[in-house]
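Check the record.
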Amino acid sequence: MAVGGWQRWRSHRQALRARSLRARGTDRFEDFVAWVLTTCAAGVVLLALAVGQLGAEHTSDRARAEAAARTAARAELLEGADGTRTRTALARWTGPDGRLTQGRVIITSQHSVGDTISIWVDRTGRLVPAPTKPSAATAVGWTWGVAVTLGGWAVLGLLWSAVRAATSRRNAAAWAREWAVVEPDWSGRVP
């Protein structure tokens, strides 16, 4: 390498070093925190995928278990319903074991005495809610995944805001100290 080339390389290296030395410590700290929080944001997405998958699997397993334990039945109403509001009415139905059962069922529309409605019962003939639909697993998975993502990103955003506020306060104090030294000379008030 020629002497002139060596000197240019050396001066370029010194300029880069001087530029990096001029960077404030708060700038380097913000850069570090930004990298860490960006990595955490990617981790939150991976966590959300796992949580969403677990939520979907749990709901799917629950839907299968409920479908296996519950049976659709027809109930005959012993009371009429006007249909203006949701209410209960007395009804009777035959359970899976063949026994006639009587109880109150929820009515959401107008019905007369003797009408039949669809209900769900367990193995003992007791009235239970309809089983969870298998399609609910997808909704639960997406809901859990989106909730984890938004919650995680909100926490990371708050952390970033706190770091920015702290470094801004520190920079402002440093700039005030530096200005107190420079300002008299800059404004011409130096005696």
The mean pLDDT is 86.
